[in-house]
Amino acid sequence: MEPNLPDVVLWSIPAFVLLTVIEMVSYRFHPDEDAAGYDTKDAATSLTMGLGSLGFDLLWKIPILAVYMGVYELTPLRVPVLWWTVLLMLLAQDFFYYWSHRGHHVIRILWACHVVHHSSRKFNLTTALRQPWTSATVWPFYLPLIACGVHPAALAFCQSANLVYQFWVHTERVGKLPRPFEYVLNTPSHHRVHHASQGGYLDRNYGGILIVWDRMFGSFAAETERPVYGLTKNIATHNPLRVATHEYAAIARDVRAAGSWSERAGRVFRGPGWQPAPRPGAEAALPVPAPVSVRAAGGPAPVRAEAPAPASVTAAAPAPEHTR
Description:
The chain is mainly alpha-helical. The protein contains 13 helices and 2 strands, in the order H-H-H-H-H-H-H-H-H-H-H-H-E-E-H. It is about 50% helix and about 0% strand. The chain has a two-stranded antiparallel sheet with strand order 1-2.
């Protein structure tokens, strides 16, 4: 029998709207020059991505639910839906969310889905709504729960609760919380680190509800310097279709330009910043450009600038266009 569990996201929509309005008003009356704040076009893009994800999620849900139900019917295990088992399921779902989230950062074809959520240079409650339209890459990470007897409807409830929790951590209006909360829970401070583009903050703090997984598996970073939000190579567009697909297009360009099947596989399944190893002897064959000294106006010492590489070399090794 299918568990009768509430639609957590639907019930939370009024709170989403209220909290977003409060945050907007707070910036109006108490602006913070250092905070990213709000931008009308950026917020509109985030809202559009969120609304679009609702429609696409319904589309992806059909085949995913069919697979989940097939696995659920095959397993002899059953987890009853009781108050204490729901708490255990929430804990287990958060654990597998951590690994799903981490996988979507370190495997480029998965990053192409998740990059949407990181594409804003702002960090506010509307950023939480900037969701991908290709979330069909998430479902395999939760198959172990279904195989252990968790009903797909119970899993959907846990995923919704996790998503709702993460709404409030997308803000700069909340500073650091008392240490016990910061040690156990994912907080705005931890999630600001996750959305930052500085090198020391990249690929950190994957937790959904709990931050303890990051502490356990070596991916935790505390917030020290103020984060700079967005990607290491930002996209200059508010077009929702381009926001949703730009990394897939970059992967396709890199695969077309690849010189071998191993490089093509690397462009798809390695990390977003992966580069193939240079071919043996390739560096020795290239001419060494003479350094050019450029002196800044009034500067005491010359700045070395490399002469451009020959056109033939540049054409032979196009730079990958992925964003990180």
